[in-house]
Amino acid sequence: MALLDVRDLSVVFKRKGTRPFTAVDGVSFSVEPGQTVGLVGESGSGKSVTSLAIMGLLPKRGAEVGGSVTFSGTELLTLSDKQLRDRRGRDLGMVFQDPLSSLNPVITIGLQITEVLERHRGMSRKEARVEAAELLDRVGLPDPGRRIDEYPHQLSGGMRQRVLIAIALACRPKLLIADEPTTALDVTIQAQILSLLSELVSETDTALIMITHDLGVVAGLCDDVNVMYGGRIVERAQRHDLFDRSRHPYTHGLLQSIPRLDAPRGEPLTPIRGSVSDNIEWEQGCAFAPRCPNATDVCWSDPPELKADDGRMLRCHNPVAIGDAVTEGAL
Amino acid sequence: MTDKTATTTEATDTDTAGTDTAGADTVGIDEARNDAAGADAAGAETATGTGEAGPGDGAVGGDDVLVTVEDLKVHFPIKRGIVLERTAGYVYAVDGVDLTIRRGETYGLVGESGCGKTTLGRGLLRLVEPTGGRIVFDDTDVSTLKGETLRKSRRRMQMIFQDPLSSLDPRQSVESILVEGMRAHGLDSGKEATRARLVELLDSVGLPESALHKYPHEFSGGQRQRIGIARALAVEPDLIVADEPVSALDVSVQAQVLNLLEELQQRLGLTYLVIAHDLAVVRHISDRIGVMYLGSLVEEASSDEMYAEPMHPYTKALLSAVPVPDPTVEDEREQILLTGDLPSPANPPTGCRFHTRCPWKQDTLCDTNRPELRDVGGGHRVACHYAEDILAGRISRHEVEPELVHPDA
């Protein structure tokens, strides 16, 4: 049985005086125990809102969540706040993009970890402090015995992110959601954090949902990759299939448009034309149609369905031909 | 010395075009650039002769150099006290950088946050006042200019900023944004001509004429960056300093802006200093790359050589840390993970600034002598005492214990 099963998840934001906005639309995917799943997309693709909906962190007022999210057989969307609080931090951990704003600035980092341990694992303050120092040591914070009494502002960005990971993993959750965990960090620090994450996750057999805009991060880390566009999943495949042979014009376009460190110099990039603001509504047709090089009349009139095709799931009327789909540079 | 010869030969193997331009340039690409910019071939010829002299004066004299930076320093004072302010120390943001930028080339400056790359770019344009050093722009010493002459000189050096929304005045229409600079430099020569020039400008950055009467908030991120580029182009500059020109943009839009920058360079013969943290972007767009660490350049080489044969330990680590969107490459990639954080630029380590995190650190020299940026052949400059030994495999990597770094130390 899947650890997490997301079925037909939708999130609609409603505000007085404005038209309702569908941020996430019919998203379905599942995560097996110990698996690493990627959720990739640009800003506005709905990837972060998906994760917040899974965690039950969206505001009750204003956001209408539909569909179902089952975690080890329990439906999460109908849980009460109290029941959710019991789960969050214990079974489900989350690491956010900006470590400074997700840590409490007026509480020492030690206390922020022991808080979780006392609440969920019923430890005494003393036990929790010992455990917290151990956790900090495991995430690679130098001199944890001293640092435990420091405040978030006394740490660098990379170290703060390590503290967040320590908090998220304090109760050995079965699932960890990491929302752009390295976007605010420098590349060498990003490499440290990514290797730490994948090491910890495989050590403890934790499942991981990795949310990012960086295809490079996904390529090295995820088993399955979901590509989102305009609130829907447009392509889902195993990472080798996706990167070696991307079939959706959006995925393909993305891979063609990012400069690669290992590409020979002087090769022009092929950008995706237009911008996200050109999208049409999914009800009308394919949201990507205005930017798509393959778009035909049907794309403007019929919304494509997510269908199994070529060993993957694909939402497209005119996918990239298999011969052309081989990404340049991939061997 | 044997090592130097070895590197030169290797560089020559990959590019047969200009064998003896050692110490001078990025061979093939540079020739193409020279043609494009309409520079005289004689310049390149002279370089061939003087090449052996090394990266210093000989090469500078022979090549068509637009900007020379000598020992540039920008130190920011740290003030303490409320009533009686005193200087408690300095942040050594840029601490002794030498570099030259040739006419028509793109020089890429990479480094992580806090390495001083942005301050270097700003210091070069004198948007921040350098503490020391010299900046020579097209044979004029910019560092001593004052008042009106300084203002006038700015016409030829423009900047493109990272965040297009905060660098454009929200209350100014695009027309007013573009005209402002032209007017300040006396390029506004009558209603008709200006109007034609504005339309031409917008057209060259791929925006419609109707954009003139709109305001920045009405555009998407990519379009705003195009306005920022048009503003820089409005005064017909020679040099454009682009500080993180694409990092605020979505991936699918980045390529549009990068292509636009390249196209404009070819058409207008512009010279770029591109500052970015994204190595893939820098490698894509630059002819030559300089890598900065804690206020100084640690390595400089042609874009291809930097990728093929990085010599400084920091460059090696930086290159190995960049994720590549290809699972096959990712699975085989050998990463050099650095431990710890960037030391505080207010209290930089003694000797080599990188020695606290360097996996190749040796017991002698590294923590006592600050390495000079020296030429190791083919214009490849590196600031490491043991670069040749590392390259030849005579020194191997070892574990590094992370040191405590306080961000506000």
Automatic annotation (TrEMBL), chain A:
InterPro entries: AAA+_ATPase, ABC_Ni/Peptide_Import, ABC_transporter-like_ATP-bd, ABC_transporter-like_CS, Oligopep_ABC_C, P-loop_NTPase
Database matches in Gene3D superfamilies: P-loop containing nucleotide triphosphate hydrolases
Membrane topology note: Peripheral membrane protein
SMART domains in the record: AAA (SM00382)
GO biological process, one term: peptide transport
Family label: Belongs to the ABC transporter superfamily.
NCBIfam families: oligo_HPY
Protein name: Peptide/nickel transport system ATP-binding protein
From TrEMBL, chain B:
Membrane spanning residue stretches: none
GO biological process: peptide transport; transmembrane transport
SMART domains named in the record: AAA
Domain ABC transporter: 67-319
SUPFAM superfamilies associated with the record: P-loop containing nucleoside triphosphate hydrolases
Ranges for region Disordered: 1-59
Entry keywords, A to Z: ATP-binding, Nucleotide-binding, Transport
InterPro entries referenced in this protein's UniProt entry, alphabetically: AAA+_ATPase, ABC_transp_ATP-bind, ABC_transporter-like_ATP-bd, ABC_transporter-like_CS, Oligopep_ABC_C, P-loop_NTPase
Compositional bias (Low complexity): 1-26, 35-50
Family recorded in the similarity comment: Belongs to the ABC transporter superfamily.
Protein name: Peptide/nickel transport system ATP-binding protein
Taxonomic source organism: Prauserella isguenensis
